[in-house]
Specification:
Chain A: It comes from Kocuria marina. The structure holds 2 protein chains of 2 kinds. Helices cover about 40% and strands about 20% of the residues of chain A. Chain A is an alpha+beta fold. Chain A has 3 domains: about 300 residues, no CATH class; about 110 residues, no CATH class; about 60 residues, Orthogonal Bundle (Arc Repressor Mutant, subunit A). In chain A, strands 1, 2, 6, 7, 10, 11, 12, 13, 14 and 15 form a 10-stranded mixed sheet that branches. In chain A, strand 14 and strand 15 form a beta hairpin. The model of chain B has no long low-confidence stretch (mean pLDDT about 95). In chain B, strand 10 and strand 11 form a beta hairpin. By secondary structure, chain B is α/β, with parallel strands linked by helices. An 11-stranded mixed sheet of chain B has the order 1-3-2-4-6-5-10-11-9-7-8, with helices on both faces. Chain B is built from 17 helices and 11 strands. Chain B has a single domain, classed as Alpha-Beta Complex (Amidase signature (AS) enzymes), CATH 3.90.1300. Classes of the chains: A alpha+beta, B alpha/beta. At the A-B interface, loops of A face helix 10 and helix 11 of B.
């Protein structure tokens, strides 16, 4: 028997991987693709429905204009051409999550086609992925299989169907075959889906939450012997729902295909499913290009017509592409490659940009967001962006330090209270009485205590070892619970001993 | 009573309602009584598929609600409120159009007992016009057929001869209007389902321009061909009802944005003295002659003579591609049918059959569809599924769409020479119930629609009006006018003009030639009862 997988290294020594992705993006329009039912997540099952979403006898679809606008924006962001006129079609198949037993989708006339997306890989290089098309369609309802194994359809006693999701607008983005990624194929898979997610989020057209299925990836993998040009047979792993899973799926499939081919067996063209628990894929149903969905033009809808004016208006309204924005910010801020990558990975670009815009320096902004605030987030096991700390807080905090009201140590304490929801830094300093102590009377008493306890240190200072003063500052700080102004304490000590600092 | 309420045209009834001479409750009551007297009683209380010993035009009678609406209209009128023109005039609705509060079955076991939670747009418009809905009329299952024999609830009978078919699919609406059960009815026309029943029952039926009337809430048969339209006994009445239900609907993407036309005015102008003078009438050479019954042809030619005598200019037009229209129609229609009827699977509504053993969803869907659909529906689903299959699509659906374009071009060329086109509506008069053996030759039934189908393919408006009785069998013959898209007013103008010429010749409406329907039904029921024993 042959082994199930070859090592990744061996697989790549012998084969070149070819990838392809179909990413489905759920739009965040107020209503569904073809009817007025609300498009909201997490409501009671079968409440966000109209006769149209349920496919009742007699109903007709009407295209959601906002969804078309979103599709055009996405097409433009992916550098696609936009169709002047395009039809919807019916994809006919019987399945209980599809109320009409056909899906209204675009088939031979996608709204956007022939684009590309440049990905930034970890080694700093760019990799261009060619986009074949982006087309509009509707989502199916959600089936929940009951009584079987772990919600799977196998051995289920019955299935529940929720049509809230039926008719939610989707855009499916299809790449051309991606060749030449080599060992970077898994990383590229992750980077591609991450880029799509970032673009749709940046355009504001999707909530882009993968855990809710807002962005779903079908990953196609095939191998060809090194140096060959003829593609091998592909597998299509459906609904891979996290970036990490996309990366792992591609890696696993490369290893699995390699083992099959190395054993002299043909790869079966089929759909597969990723399992996070076993970190492997299993076969779904065999799929062939001859699957017959009996597509034909949707007779209940008139073609979608786009005008050049409309497209240009939308193009002008597009936000700056995330990749270009990153290049610009990195240059503006003067961070090192490593510093900038850490900032990006921490997901605090917006926060730092706003903090700088509000008056802080790039270094100060990075110091707080990547320092104490990041630590607080990690401690609480949340994303930095989910903490109640705002750029305005950081600027205010920094102002308090610059003004000598608080020191860094106190500032960290203050941030802790900001996270607890006690108010703005200034309010907290006020209400908790956290300002540094610069009242000479209180400080002199503490200094006298410290000097009395450490006569040897006093002697050292008198003898010219001025740096020994730190040993006295420590106990003073402790006595004033950290609120003493360290500079002032030093001045008092040196003054008392008649030593020049 | 010198003139029975039920024999009044809708326009005349509306006038009497407005003047207070007749109340809406009286009008509704009179029509409900006529339905009671002529629609028959079930032949088999256990088996609805056998129908009744009468006309069996109604699948559901909406007695209480109709009377409630009528009372409301009478009260409003008593208070001097401004009311829509047809307020209080009762209407029947083909059971393919969804109605909240009444069952909608499409004459299929699949939907037996299903209650729509929403109103179709045309239903809403009838309610807004305050027209009492008498009930839901019989049809061929899902509107597939030309005889109403394909109803799961028994055939409708032709009021002219109860052994004959009333046409189809809208045989129920046509028979109801013909037999004075309703002054007006709504039908739907995919390949002739309003006009062919009108022709064989001696009534008027109009298929408006595609998109002129909303299809929202009309159970789809073939989306690119279906159109709702009026059934009546006079051209003016059809125009009045068209004005009520027509107009743009944002819920129907294929609905035209044009404002509702002045159809009633066009009808009145057409029937005025000299109303047809100078009208260029094109005789479609491909839609008469060979294959058309002699008596149908004879009456058709007499109509041409009358038109000519009234100052119309009669010209011949050629439409060579009509030869392929029937074939193209059956491919496009059945393709759309196969997809439109996929939703009937027993999962969300309608009939659900759970087979023995371990019922998978596939088995439930399959058993429900096997039990719920009749033979003709299954035949068309299979044909359409085949036509759309990979490898056949281009040859069948693709070339059918090309024929459709050629038919549209034929019409465009014909309308260069003529303002309206004319033909017999159907090649024959009504045939016997059970007289066509479809299992041996379904084409024979399909040929009934040879003259009506081209207009559906082209999306243009057409009217059928009574053209007299065929000498050989004494049954009604229909005359069809066709006009360019969005020129619905022209079919009302021409139709009303010819209607006036014919009724003047006959000395009254054609139905005066017919024996009393109530008596005919009584005799038929008695015979059926004897035959049953």
């Amino acid at each position: 028997m042959s082994q199930d997988v070859l090592s990744f290294e061996e697989a790549l020594e012998r084969f070149d991987p070819v990838l392809g992705f179909e990413v489905h993006v759920e739009l965040n329009t107020k209503t569904k693709m073809f009817d007025a039912a609300p498009n909201t997540f997490g409501d009671e099952p079968n409440t966000n429905v109209t006769p149209v979403s349920l496919g009742l006898p007699g109903v007709l679809p009407v295209v959601n204009g906002k969804a078309v606008e979103s599709a055009i924006k996405l097409g433009l962001a992916l550098n696609c051409s936009i169709a002047q006129k395009c039809h919807f079609a019916r994809k006919n198949y019987f399945y209980p999550d599809t109320p009409k037993n056909f899906q209204t989708s675009q088939f031979d006339e996608p709204i956007a086609f022939d684009g590309h997306l440049d990905l930034e890989l970890e080694d700093g290089t760019e990799f261009r992925v060619e986009i074949e098309r982006a087309h509009m369609e509707e989502d199916a309802g959600k089936l929940t299989h009951m009584g079987g194994d772990a919600g799977r359809i196998q051995n289920a006693q019955y299935s529940l169907v929720d049509y809230n999701r039926a008719g939610v607008p989707l855009i499916e983005i299809v790449t051309k075959p991606i060749v030449g990624a080599g060992e970077r194929a898994p990383e590229l898979a992750r980077a591609y889906v991450a880029a799509i997610r970032e673009i749709v989020k940046n355009l504001g057209i999707s909530d882009a939450r993968m855990e809710r299925g807002n962005v779903r990836c079908d990953a196609n993998v095939s191998l060809m012997p090194k140096g060959a040009t003829q593609f091998g047979t592909r597998s299509e792993t459906k609904n891979v729902n996290s970036l990490r899973a996309v990366e792992r799926t591609v890696r696993y499939e490369i290893q699995r295909h390699a083992a099959v081919l190395a054993a002299g067996v043909k790869v079966t063209q089929e759909t597969r499913f990723w399992h996070e628990d076993t970190r492997s894929t299993t076969a779904g149903r065999p799929k062939s290009d001859a699957d017959d969905y009996r597509y034909f033009p949707e007779p209940d809808l008139v073609p979608v017509v786009t005008t050049a004016d409309w497209i240009e208006e939308l193009r002008a309204s597009l936000p700056e592409p995330p990749a270009e924005r990153r290049k610009r910010l990195k240059a503006d801020w003067g961070y090192t490659d490593e510093e900038f990558r850490d900032v990006v990975n921490a997901g605090v670009l917006d926060e730092i940009e706003q903090t700088i815009a509000a008056g802080a320096s790039a270094a100060v902004a990075r110091k707080w967001w990547m320092g104490e605030i990041a630590r607080l987030a990690k401690q609480r096991e949340v994303e930095i962006a989910d903490l109640p700390v705002t750029p305005a807080h950081v600027v205010e905090l920094n102002g308090l330090i610059d003004g000598g009201k608080i020191n860094d140590k106190l500032a960290k304490k203050v941030l802790g209270f900001v996270v607890e929801g006690e108010g703005t830094p200034a309010e907290i300093v006020e209400s908790r009485g956290l300002a540094v102590v610069s009242d000479d009377g209180a400080l002199t008493a503490a200094v006298d205590d410290a000097m009395a306890q450490m006569p040897d240190v006093v002697e050292k200072i008198k003898g010219g070892k001025v740096q020994a003063v730190g040993a006295l500052i420590g106990p003073v700080m402790k006595a004033t619970r950290g609120q003493a102004d360290a500079g002032r304490v030093r001045q008092i000590i040196l003054g008392k001993l008649g030593v020049q600092g | 009573m010198s003139e029975r309420i039920v024999e009044l045209s809708a326009a005349d009834l509306a006038a009497k309602l407005a003047s207070g001479e007749v109340s809406s409750v009286d009008a509704v009551t009179a029509h409900l009584e006529q339905i009671e007297a002529t629609d028959g009683t079930p032949l088999d209380a256990q088996d609805r598929s056998r129908g009744t010993d009468g006309l069996n035009a109604f699948l559901h009678r909406n007695r209480e609600e109709a009377l409630d609406v009528a009372r409301g209209v009478d009260e409003a009128r008593a208070k001097g409120e401004q009311l829509p023109e047809l307020a209080g005039v009762p209407v029947a609705v083909k059971d393919l159009i969804v109605t909240k509060g009444q069952p909608t079955t499409a004459a299929s076991r699949m939907l037996e007992g299903w209650m729509s939670p929403y109103d179709g747009t045309v239903t809403r418009k009838l309610r807004a016009a305050r027209m009492p809905i008498l009930g839901k009329t019989n049809l061929d299952e899902f509107a597939m057929g030309s005889s109403t024999e394909h109803s799961a609830f028994g055939p409708t009978r032709n009021p002219w001869d109860l052994r004959k078919i009333p046409g189809g699919s809208g045989g129920g609406s046509a028979a109801a209007v013909s037999a004075f059960q309703a002054p007006l009815a709504l039908g739907t026309d995919t390949g002739g389902s309003i006009r062919q029943p009108a022709a064989v029952t001696g009534t008027v039926g109009v298929k408006p321009t595609y998109g002129s009337v909303s299809r929202y809430g009309v159970i789809a048969m073939a989306s690119s061909l279906d159109q709702v339209g009026p059934c009546s006994r006079t051209v003016l009445d059809a125009a009045l009802l068209h004005e009520v239900v027509g107009g743009h609907d944002p819920a129907d993407s294929t609905s035209l944005t044009d404002p509702v036309g002045s159809y009633a005015r066009a009808a009145r102008e057409g029937s005025a003295e000299g109303g047809l003078k100078g009208l260029r009438v094109g005789v479609v050479q491909q839609l008469s002659g060979e294959g058309f019954q002699a008596g149908v042809q004879q009456r058709f030619e007499e109509s041409l003579e009358l038109l000519r005598a009234a100052g119309a200019e009669i010209v011949d037009v050629q439409t060579p591609n009509f030869e392929y229209a029937l074939g193209a129609y059956y491919l496009i229609m059945s393709s759309e049918v196969s997809s439109n009827l996929a939703k009937y699977d027993g999962v969300r509504f309608g009939l659900r059959v759970t087979p023995e053993g371990t019922p998978t969803i596939e088995k439930v869907m399959s058993a429900s569809r096997a039990a719920g659909f009749g033979d003709e529906v299954k035949r068309r689903i299979i044909l359409g599924t085949y036509a759309l299959s990979a490898g056949y699509y281009d040859a069948y659906y693709g070339s059918a769409q090309q024929v459709r374009t050629l038919v549209q071009r034929d019409f465009a060329a014909a309308f260069e020479k003529a303002d309206v086109l004319i033909s017999p509506t159907a090649p024959t008069t009504a045939f016997d119930i059970g007289g066509v053996d479809e299992s041996a030759d379904p084409m024979q039934m399909y040929l009934n629609d040879i003259a009506t189908i081209p207009t559906n393919l082209a999306g243009i408006p057409a009217i059928s009006l009574p053209g007299g009785l065929a000498p050989e069998d004494g049954l009604p013959v229909g005359i069809q006018f066709m006009a360019p898209a969005r020129e619905d007013a022209r079919v009302y103008r021409a139709g009303a003009g010819l209607e006036r010429l014919l009724t003047e010749q006959w000395g009254g409406p054609l139905w005066r030639e017919r024996a009393d329907v109530t008596a005919t039904v009584r005799d038929f029921a008695a015979t059926a009862a004897q035959g049953g024993k």
